[in-house]
Amino acid sequence: MKYVDEYRDGDKARELAARIHNEIDPQRQYRFMEFCGGHTHAIFRFGIHDLMPENLKYVHGPGCPVCVLPAGRIEAAIKLAESEDVILCTYADLMRVPAGKGDSLNRAKARGSDIRMIYSSSDALAVARENPDRQVVFFAIGFETTTPPTAAAIRIARAEGLKNFTVFCNHVLTPPAMLHILSSGEACIDGILGPSHVSTIIGSHAYADCCSLYRMPLVIAGFEPLDVIQSTLMLVRQVNQGRCEVENQYVRAVRETGNQKAQALMAEVFEPRSVFEWRGLGDLPASAVQINAQYALFDAEKRFAMQKMQTADVKGCICPAVLRGISDPDQCKLFATACTPEEPKGACMVSSEGACAAQYSYGRYRSAETRV
Amino acid sequence: MKYVDEYRDGDKARELAARIHNEIDPQRQYRFMEFCGGHTHAIFRFGIHDLMPENLKYVHGPGCPVCVLPAGRIEAAIKLAESEDVILCTYADLMRVPAGKGDSLNRAKARGSDIRMIYSSSDALAVARENPDRQVVFFAIGFETTTPPTAAAIRIARAEGLKNFTVFCNHVLTPPAMLHILSSGEACIDGILGPSHVSTIIGSHAYADCCSLYRMPLVIAGFEPLDVIQSTLMLVRQVNQGRCEVENQYVRAVRETGNQKAQALMAEVFEPRSVFEWRGLGDLPASAVQINAQYALFDAEKRFAMQKMQTADVKGCICPAVLRGISDPDQCKLFATACTPEEPKGACMVSSEGACAAQYSYGRYRSAETRV
Amino acid sequence: MSRLDIKNGLVEMAHGSGGRASAALIDGLFTRHLDNALLRQGDDATLFEVSAGRMVISTDAHVVSPLFFPGGDIGSLSVHGTINDVAMSGAKPLYLSASFILEEGFSLAELEKIVISMAEASRLAGVPVVTGDTKVVESGKGDGVFISTTGIGVLAEGIRVSGDRAEAGDAIIVSGYIGDHGIAILSSRQGLEFDTQIQSDSAALHGLVADMVQAVPDIHCLRDPTRGGLATTLNELCKQSGVGMRIHETDISVRAEVKGACELLGLDPLYIANEGKLACICPKASAAKLISVMQAHPLGREAAVIGEVVADESRLVVMQTTFGGQRVVDWLAGEQLPRIC
Amino acid sequence: MSRLDIKNGLVEMAHGSGGRASAALIDGLFTRHLDNALLRQGDDATLFEVSAGRMVISTDAHVVSPLFFPGGDIGSLSVHGTINDVAMSGAKPLYLSASFILEEGFSLAELEKIVISMAEASRLAGVPVVTGDTKVVESGKGDGVFISTTGIGVLAEGIRVSGDRAEAGDAIIVSGYIGDHGIAILSSRQGLEFDTQIQSDSAALHGLVADMVQAVPDIHCLRDPTRGGLATTLNELCKQSGVGMRIHETDISVRAEVKGACELLGLDPLYIANEGKLACICPKASAAKLISVMQAHPLGREAAVIGEVVADESRLVVMQTTFGGQRVVDWLAGEQLPRIC
Amino acid sequence: MCLAVPARVESLDDVSSTAMVDLDGIRKEVSTVLLDEINVGDYVLIHVGYALERIDPIEAEKTLLLFDELRDSEA
Amino acid sequence: MCLAVPARVESLDDVSSTAMVDLDGIRKEVSTVLLDEINVGDYVLIHVGYALERIDPIEAEKTLLLFDELRDSEA
Ligand code: SF4
Ligand code: SF4
Ligand SMILES: [Mg+2]
Ligand SMILES: [Mg+2]
Ligand SMILES: [Mg+2]
Ligand SMILES: [Mg+2]
Ligand SMILES: [Mg+2]
Ligand SMILES: [Mg+2]
Ligand SMILES: [Mg+2]
Ligand SMILES: [Mg+2]
Ligand SMILES: [Mg+2]
Ligand SMILES: [Mg+2]
């Protein structure tokens, strides 16, 4: 795979890692938050941990759209699917996410609700076209990467005059979450691996505030392992040199101003929400978007009387701390006992980008190794 | 079974049959039309033929509601089920009836139409209640026996304000068909075994015209074998004595004026059609009912744009002659070769009351016996 | 392993994924209840020992609706149905395999009931389920539970039971009341409900058959009159053997309730399914002996000769009616459905 | 018998009634194409001869969607799938049974294609379908065609292949490219269509296995990594044998297209189903010999040692990544579904 | 035509206008809207789930007697 | 988050604003509405069926070179 395989070269990785070992100050700790689940996934999948010095630690961030979606939003979607005769379309990633009391979209589907997994927002449009007599609701999630495709679908729906298509919008914004993490100061980190594909859309300039306000080094990093390691080295150098800049390692896909056509499309269809709840982070102001007045016809929250559900998080689940970078998954008492990918108690155990799932599926060998 | 088993006593049957043998004039032929398929069925099922003298012959009549329904009416129902999103409810008897070009309700169901078999008109109402979002059409057939239950369902639908229930009415009337057979003179018969359960509703007085106008002996006969044999004996006696009366053998269930409550119910909901097509008999004036103006909301032919379909009967099928009492099933070249209960070419091969089906399923032993 | 919430849980797609959820379902439900030494091997195929000789194999898919009916459920039925097909060759059934196709959303509690009933039927019959498979289909693409079972058995020397061995002169025996199963199913079918004491006759007939072949090793044909009823079974045998049959309505046992339900719905008991009855064709000379052996077995107490095989090129089954007439008893045409006329 | 309009006809409820329409379907479609001497016996159970020794039995339900996919269809798959489960015990498959659950409204022409493909697969493999059954469920209560097959086979003396025999030090062999079947299915699944040359690897592996057990009778374990993929199969073996495994990503063959599709859909080739591959655990000393025998067989040309069995109470499969890191390769959790994040 | 069987009325529900009838151990609920007067113990003809008419026990008996008469009598 | 993979543009359909892209033999139709300028031969990042952005081949090459530089250079 061009533009993939080159960035997965193990030999180069070891050489780059050696450079990190060389340059690192053995006297201090380096704690870098990988903001994105994509990075979490890559770190575990490729075993990047193993290549890093003992005193360099990756701290997980809230950048997994599945993990930060509050259970109440899923419950509201389930209620909708059960009370109205709608077809609920959603990305497969959401199907197993716990929605409180052991429920999930998967189980609602098993109980008989018409819930369909789609691969693209355009598939949801196709479902709406094929079922003109039924209401089709697209349960949309994602950061800025996934938001423009939703906007595109809404614009097409209006152009076609589709009367049975709406979107239950749960799109969230990266910079507010990052600012929140930094402003709370709990995470105790020395640098940030910045999002790769989100940055493709919003551009590297979007993180200027983070760096300047909180004096935090940030390197926008590709998702391939060499990208991660190179970006880690770049962060090590910023730390060592006392710099706090937005650097862009992922130059092959991220421009300073991002994808302006996609930004314009988002601006046309969406507007900021005054406040939105994030799982783990709580209510964050201006941290999400909603469908604007011009496109209100396509807003499921306006078409249907959707309840605002408050779901208590599971007792013992430390997802909030994991998502804030305060705790590691294996500090959770439920980890790998009550909470497994098969019966996830918190959202971080669901998505393969979730820190707990990645730790469980890929990372357990560490403890195993010590036992063997 | 009380009121059943007593009338199936083989010994008594043989004694009664002996009486017929005694009383019959060996010099002449006795041709009695069993108007009803119920009698046809009983004659074959119990092997009554075998007990009768050679010169007494049962001639099949048109009294099978499945057999006389024109293929075009079934095709219209199939078209309706295919073009509109309706649930078509019907008695199972209709499912296999050929509707032209090898089609049938069974095959339309296999192709995906929502066609449901019901046992009672009240089941159709239940389907309508359970599916408030869909139109439920009851494809109703039958003579006067089956018409009052349809009327009852329509009245209930109006009382409940069911907005999604209609009836595709195909109810037909017995006396006009009988008069038509007699007036055409083709059938060449000496007496009629009159309907049993139709007469329960319309009463024995309904046949007065038949007897007086065409000087035709008629005995209303129960469907049990002793009823049939006794009635046959009564007909033999009328013939021998030159009488032409309406006699009632089925006195345990048929009163002279019939069931007046049921008659009133029919009159409330239905009105005569000016003309209706019968398979085999053609267009007969005032021979069927339709839903009247007061109940027009429940008339499927009014609610939907139902096409009037003309289906050519299958080449070689002599159903019309069989239904008029002119020919026997085994005079048909297709009988038991191209036309079998599995692949019926004409309607008479479908219902177990159809003369061809009865002959095929129960009667073939005669030809077999001669071969063995 | 992931936990299985049998009490409240539903079948989910993941239970058919082959992953941890599948393993949990198999361990927690199937192997737990069907447990036996061979099944415990835990491989995709199960090993067993045989001696030299003749074996038989038979398979049936079971798709009954409703899944639970008076006198049984799809679990016991799927054990009996295949044991009987093996037994109808005269063989002794040894082992069963079971493959389940579950519909997403089906209740795990009901599934457990079915598996328990299967396990009981298998234990009672002494024929263990030694291997199995489970798949899950999306809601709307199945009907709760389908179970396909395959049975293998061993055939003692000297026995040669086959549908093509009926000969003119042979006696036709039926082991008991006909129509019970089909009427029990109809009585609980949605939209047709009626109350009755009738129970399905679902039962494993291999014990009865063992007694029969021991007494009369030269039994010509055995068949269980399931779908299509006794009428269809007799016609099948006529077709295979190239003979005809003459049977006597008075000698065929039908319960009053079954007759009543048939009159009500316009059905004929001869076409109603049985799941614990057999038809047997044997040399006339052995009939009396067979009848006495059968009547000594709890599942053959009402066994009776109901007719005889005749030479008939047309291969017709002709019945002398109780009434004294005669009529052809044909194959089932189409489906057996309630009639109004 | 009633005629079967294969060209234009659809499956109707009557085809499952057990009556004349059922007989027409079986004669005109199933026995016609699957024809063989044993099936021709025409009884409900089929008779065959065996010698004394060890036999195996295995069953699988096949419920694939779509029914036709690049490189096969449910017909060939249902033959290969069960032959392979029998072969994975080291046995020689002898006979298959097949039970069909048809959905009302399914095209008879497509059904014939499936049966022909089944017949071809069975003929090519030399493993005849000797008995069968067909049921019809109402439209909306099935999914076109489900096929459950059961296979029986005989096991030569001295062979003892079982999932519980993996020992620390054993070599782990995989017979070729993984993930082809699952990706071929995904590529043709509605709503996810993509173009690819990838074909299902569906194939009968008993010939390969015969060569393998002849060369190395002491093979410890064999398993075909179907649902849940290689990852799940290895975890199953670890669980059964109470061991761990260390495997090497670089030694596992994955086609570029399969990698591409997995990257696109967020899947992992280790969890993708195969239908013509096997995993084998054998004493390390025999590995080289086995590899050479396997590579000489058309279905094992890319056979390679991919790792070794280790003592590990946690029974973990740990993989050395191409990249030089290590990670746990866990059981499949939930279903393998395309991801967006 | 018109399959109808006699069954015994076991109980009546005037509110829903239904009766529970029995036919040799088969019990089924049927509608009684087509009949004015039914009593428990009556035999009624059942057709498509409706009671069509009462069986007149005296006439039924008469018919049976008539069979005997007829077979004995001369024409 | 945001699984996206680079694929080569094989052909473009301006009417439907779609492109056929290829990823090592996997060909898939994707929407191009989020990009202004795409040419056949370009590599684009695919996410949920949409082309998100072009991969800049020069920058990609530079990154690869940088790996070598970085590992050789001193901090
Ligand atoms: S292991 Fe499970 S319960 Fe614990 S923090 Fe993670 S998701 Fe929550
Ligand atoms: S045998 Fe068939 S074709 Fe001939 S008259 Fe009867 S129904 Fe018509
Ligand atoms: Mg069988
Ligand atoms: Mg069976
Ligand atoms: Mg059988
Ligand atoms: Mg299996
Ligand atoms: Mg269903
Ligand atoms: Mg198997
Ligand atoms: Mg298999
Ligand atoms: Mg297997
Ligand atoms: Mg069978
Ligand atoms: Mg379907």
UniProtKB/TrEMBL annotation, chains A, B:
Keywords: Iron, Metal-binding. It comes from the Bacteria. One of its GO terms (biological process) is protein maturation. Belongs to the HypD family. This is Hydrogenase maturation factor. GO terms for molecular function: 4 iron, 4 sulfur cluster binding; carbon monoxide binding; iron ion binding. Pfam families: HypD (PF01924). InterPro entries: Hyd_form_HypD, HypD_1, HypD_2_sf. It comes from Mariprofundus micogutta.
UniProtKB/TrEMBL annotation, chains C, D:
Gene3D superfamilies: PurM-like C-terminal domain, PurM-like, N-terminal domain. Pfam families: AIRS, AIRS_C. Residues 42-154 form the PurM-like N-terminal domain. Transmembrane segments: none annotated. GO terms for biological process: protein maturation. It comes from the Bacteria. Residues 167-313 form the PurM-like C-terminal domain. InterPro entries: HypE, PurM-like_C_dom, PurM-like_C_sf, PurM-like_N, PurM-like_N_sf. Belongs to the HypE family. This is Hydrogenase expression/formation protein HypE.
UniProtKB/TrEMBL annotation, chains E, F:
Gene3D superfamilies: 2.30.30.140. GO terms for molecular function: carbon dioxide binding; iron ion binding. It holds the Pfam family HupF_HypC. InterPro entries: Hydgase_assmbl_chp_CS, Hydrogenase_HupF/HypC. SUPFAM superfamilies: HupF/HypC-like. It comes from the Bacteria. Coiled coil: none annotated. One of its GO terms (biological process) is protein maturation. Belongs to the HupF/HypC family. NCBIfam families: hypC_hupF. This is Hydrogenase expression/formation protein HypC.
